[in-house]
Amino acid sequence: MIGQGPGALVATKLQVPTAPAGLVRRARLDALLDRAIVERHQLVLVSAPAGSGKSTLLAGSLVDRDVDLVWLQVESSDSDPVRFWSYLTAAIDSARSGVVDLVEPTILSTGGSADAVVDALVNALADETDPLIIVIDDYHEIDNPTIHTGVERFVELSPEPVGIVIATRTD
Questions:
Q1: What pLDDT digit, counting tens, does each position of 75-88 carry?
Q2: d(Cα 79, Cα 91) in Å, to the nearest integer?
Q3: What pTM was estimated for this model as a whole?
Q4: Which long-range contacts (CB under 8 A, 24 or more apart) does 29-36 make?
Q5: Please, what's the b/e burial string for 32-42 (b: 16 or more CB within 10 A of its CB; e: otherwise)?
Q6: Which DSSP string do the residues of the chain spell out, in sequence order?
Q7: Do the beta carbons of residue 95 and residue 160 sit within 8 Å?
Q8: Helix axes 114-125 and 145-157, enclosed angle (nearest 10)
Q9: Using alpha carbons only, what angle is made at residue 119 by residues 82 and 89, rounded to the nearest 5 degrees?
Q10: 70 has which bridge partners?
């Protein structure tokens, strides 16, 4: 757990999954992901049915890249804006120390208002020059339209070295 008390975050939701030892590489998909990173695409959407290997593909392909990689494993309870933005900020903080200190007060004081939180998060990352890839896995679990709007805005406003990868069962 990260922190203590009822708002504590579960650390394992922020860990990049370990690719299996016998991972069969998907050369075409690896090449597409590599191109997206090299060309600094702001958003990569990986959409496929349950069990098709989205998380395995991303963990196996992205972990070897020369970028900072952060991961958020979403579950249905993360449809609460405070919870979602707290987890996303904590994930980013694992590679960009200090982001939580800058953004968490806004999350808590606004009840997770996407407009305010995205502004604070983008400002916290504004001076970044090193590539950062943020994976949000199982995004289909989020059913809150305000979070969707906030994530869309975050993608649009993120500084150039920040790339967001969304893995989902639905577009």
A1: 999 999 999 999 99
A2: 16
A3: 0.88
A4: 29/57, 29/61, 30/57, 30/61, 33/57, 33/58, 33/61, 33/62, 33/165, 34/61, 34/65, 36/163
A5: ebeebbeeeee
A6: -BSSSTT-B-GGGGSPPPPPTTPPP-HHHHHHHHHHHHTT-SEEEEE--TTS-HHHHHHHHHTTSSSEEEEEE--GGGGSHHHHHHHHHHHHHTTSTTHHHHHHHHHHHHTS-HHHHHHHHHHHHTT--S-EEEEEETGGG---HHHHHHHHHHHHHS-TTEEEEEEES--
A7: no
A8: 30
A9: 45
A10: 134
Residue 122 token pair: 């983008």
Per residue in 4-23, pLDDT tens? 444 678 898 998 887 767 76
CA distance 21 to 140: 27
